[in-house]
Amino acid sequence: MLRQRRKTIVPIEIVKDLDVFLKVENDLKDPTTTGGTSKVRFLVESCLIPYIYYPFLVALITALVVLCLTFIRIITFENTSLKYDYSVDWDHESKLKINVDITIATQCMFIGSDVLDVTNKNPLEAGKLDEEDTWFELSNTQARAFKNLQIGNELLRKQYHAIHDVIWLDGFNMHNEQLPKREINPDRPKDACRFHGTLEVTKVAGNFHIIMGKSFSLFGAHAHLSPLGIEYAMNFSHRIDQFSFGHPSPGLVQPLNGDLKLSKTATQMYQYFIEVVPTVVDTRHANVETYQYAVTEKTREINHNQGSHGIPGIFIRYEISPMKITVKEVNRSYWFLLVEIGGIIGGVFATSGMIHSIINILYESFYKKGEKSHHEMNETIIIAKNNVGVTPESSAVLQ
After folding, report:
1. Which of 98, 244, 251, 104 is nearest to 172 (CA)?
2. Cβ(199)–Cβ(243) under 8 Å?
3. Whole-structure pTM over 0.70, yes or no?
4. If you average pLDDT over every residue of the chain, what do you get?
5. Which residue ranges does UniProt annotate as crossing the membrane (predicted)?
């Protein structure tokens, strides 16, 4: 005799079993033991390039990278380089040329220029600069050109140590850059004086200066003669278009070119301290013995009541370095280019090998694992279908 047993009705179970969504019949389901692993496998198979073509793709990309880098290195290869030699300068007999182009904001009749060295020779032996009355204020075109000169020289002074090889090899030259001529002359008296020309002095320390009064020598003494009562009318505001030593040469940077100083008082004193270094330039752009220099500057106001003594004006004191620098351009062998290309090829192949290994690891981790899980799932389903039999629940009902 069969006895029907009813289960106790629990309200919470009724709520849990309540589902308004349609469900797929169990016979239509294909359960898996690995969850979404098969989906990963599907994505890998769909998104990744078939593995058989992957080595060819890596080889193609590697070859393209090698060709591009090799081409870039060939077109940027410099077959010359610079060699710097340092030696003692034993040449004390040659003359030192000083190239000057300075404009002072005072009329030429009130100021004068000359140069003195430690030997106290007659300054007239060094020559005389040309004096030209002009206007201190530049025209619009001249102002733009001078501003470009200032900006260019400022950048060169700041970045010289980083780009000096490029400057020498490319033959950069700023010596021929002069201010354009004035288009229209102002309708007012000329208020400035331009000193320009070349002085030849003995190769020893000296002092080039521009001060009030005209210079003259008398019985071995040097003095400046000026009218009385004009000292408070002086204005030593100045603009340096060029100041260099020796012959011009491509690659040289003149620190004082483009320098502009504006004075607020008539008793201003400007001092420049220059270290002149003999330089031999031997490049494809020039082969000449010349000079380069470094400069520091100082400005102060003359006030005898406060203990600041001196003479208002512009003083450029220079000293000659006992060391000589030789800048020589030497040819580089093309073997260096071959070695660099070999390094490029080896580096690219090593990098591509590492990338290839990483991709292989990822491929094995995702694709192979998904394939294995799918295979195990199929075997589990087959075994489950073959082992269908009487369950404990059915036997209880039959009793």
Report:
1. 251
2. no
3. no
4. 77
5. 51-72, 334-363
